[in-house]
Amino acid sequence: MRKVIGIGETIYDVVFKNNQPFMALPGGSTFNCVVSLGRLNVPALFVSEAGNDKIGNIIKDFMKENNLSIDYIDFFNEGSTPVALAFLDENQDVEYAFCRNFPERRLPIDLPPINENDIVVLGSYFAVNLLLREKILELLENARKRNAVVYYDINFRKAHAYERMKLMSSFLENFEYSTIIRCSDEDLQSLYPGESIDKIYTDRISFYCKNFIVTQGADHVILKTGRFEKSYEVASLDPVSTIGAGDNFNAGIIYGMMKYAIAADDLSRLEEKDWDKLIALALKFSAEVCMTPDNYISKEFAATLQC
């Protein structure tokens, strides 16, 4: 059976409004995406790490409740589960402060098996962290050998922009393995400051990967495929929170690939109407999450969309 394999950080988010905490819930970029897929009963695995502590136990139980296996989570004893303090501004956009205490040895676990046309999803700083590079490359190489789809969300924030040159070789390696690359316009300015989307695609991306999606908050979504490019309008809304909006845009694309049986070899020849269906789902997922305080689609929403 075709499945999704995510790899990324597992974090406990404590969310603040008006400088006061008002909720706490498990999070992490790829984690949010995979939880939404689990709620849709999409076969999904998640590779990550968390502390063998109270917060780690909360995350463990939460994953089980959302149809996700914990078999590929390293529950370490030295250190503690990361915590993110998420501060929402008046526009419901978020700024983070992180509390991390990892063990010296990271992810000493076996990776899950990958089969042809499985979908591997990765992103954020986790995907370029030099301390985790060996494990990331092992997963990507396995995906290439098995002809799996690799969905890469750059998700590189300005807090790490000063590291961009040190990490550039990792970004380029990730690009080379990728089947689809998704990012926000803010990510691009952190990685390639001052360059336009067109220039970045032409000079930095297209040599490695033809399928490139750029989200721009409430502005248009830009799709470039090598065969055509298109701009998609984003519906206006008054968000409760933008946490998880991009992560669930990713979930919508991946869910669409599963729903419409789009295989790895199909991506190079998808027509405009095929991409229209994928982007429509992605925007629907993203809008759904923006209208709730959660990081993932609701179980009620998922029940209307089961594969």
N-to-C order of helices and strands: EEEHEHEEEEHEHEHHEEEHHH
Helix amount, in percent?
25-40%
Shape: globular
Order of strands side by side in the largest beta sheet? 5-4-1-8-9-10-11-12-13
Biggest pleated-sheet summary: 9 strands, mixed
Helix tally equals 9
Structural class designation: alpha/beta
Mean pLDDT: 94
How many individual β-strands? 13
DSSP strand content:
15-25%
Low-confidence stretches: none
From the alpha-carbon coordinates, what is the Rg to the nearest angstrom?
A: 18 Å
How many angstroms separate the termini?
A: 13 Å
Explained architecture:
The protein is an alpha/beta fold and 307 residues long. Helix content is 34%, strand content 25%. It has helices at 29-39, 54-65, 133-145, 164-177, 185-191, 197-205, 245-259, 272-290, 299-303; strands at residues 4-7, 11-17, 20-27, 44-51, 73-76, 80-88, 94-101, 119-123, 149-153, 180-184, 211-215, 221-224, 229-232. The strands form 2 sheets. It has a 9-stranded mixed sheet, sandwiched between helices. The chain has a 4-stranded mixed sheet with strand order 3-2-6-7. Helix 3 links the parallel strand 8 and strand 9. Helix 1 packs across helix 7, helix 3 (133-145) runs parallel beside helix 4 (164-177) and helix 7 packs across helix 8. It is globular, with a radius of gyration of 18 Å. The chain starts with a strand and ends with a helix. The model has no long low-confidence stretch (mean pLDDT 94).
